[in-house]
Amino acid sequence: MKREAIFEFFRRLAEDNPSPETELLFGNTYQLLVAVVLSAQATDVGVNKATRALFRDVQTPAQMVALGEEGLKAHIKTIGLFNAKAKNVIALSEILVRDFAGEVPADRDVLTTLPGVGRKTANVVMNCAFGAETFAVDTHIFRVGNRTGMAKGKTVLAVEKALEKKVPQPFRVGAHHWLILHGRYVCKARRPECWRCGVADMCAFKPKSEGPRK
Q1: Do 204 and 147 form a contact (C-beta atoms < 8 A)?
Q2: 50 within 8 A of 42, measured Cβ to Cβ
Q3: What pTM value is reported for the model?
């Protein structure tokens, strides 16, 4: 996909949704970090259900440490891999309290040193909390990047690097939100809904699906 087409691709998505946001619910940067860690191999809907009560009581790393691993597990036991995630969240909270005065560092490299925080999680936090031009490649973005021809790659890092190179201003901060939402609700994995896709004419995917099943 050429640069002019990529600009038009995002222009249309932006016209349809001018202010895209993560669907994870949070009240501050620390809660965002926790929510993203919990969202690995889980849905945003499932995470939001689990964190609704948790985030009423826990707004800071110190409060999470006080809650403890067992207390956290009680809140998140409906989420996949909750035992490992609880261990990581408590551990990263202890580090934030000990080394960062309870604040989430605005540095991707530092974030990835925290337990349970990989590059994708760090990219989400950097983008959503600090407005960084990062591209958090999840399964939806990986699929959309390859299927459309915009950002092809055999690995998530390859797709991320392609997006970093190709996505133009003024769409760089919002790009990963538009792509996630497009992949989640339109360019679906099993059967993309091409008949209602506003950018289908620029997409390399063939054959296009031709309408909802009756």
Answers
A1: yes
A2: no
A3: 0.90
Q: Which CATH architecture best describes the domain 3-20+135-202? A: Orthogonal Bundle (1.10)
Q: Which residues contact 179 (CB under 8 A, 6 or more apart)?
A: 140, 141, 144, 145
Q: Which residues are catalytic?
A: 120, 138
Q: Quick one: pLDDT at residue 211?
A: 62
Q: Which CATH code, of 3.20.20.80, 3.90.79.10, 1.10.340.30, 3.30.1490.20, is assigned to 29-130?
A: 1.10.340.30
| Domain assignments of the chain as residue spans, ordered by start | 3-20+135-202, 29-130
Question: Token match 């009680």: residue?
Answer: 74
Q: How many CA atoms lie within 13 A of 69 on its CB side?
A: 11
CB-CB contact of 84 with 40 (8 Å)? no
Helix 156-166 crosses helix 139-148 at what angle (to 10 degrees)?
A: 60
**41 — pLDDT class (breaks 50, 70, 90):** confident
Please give the average per-residue pLDDT across 144-151, as a whole number: 95
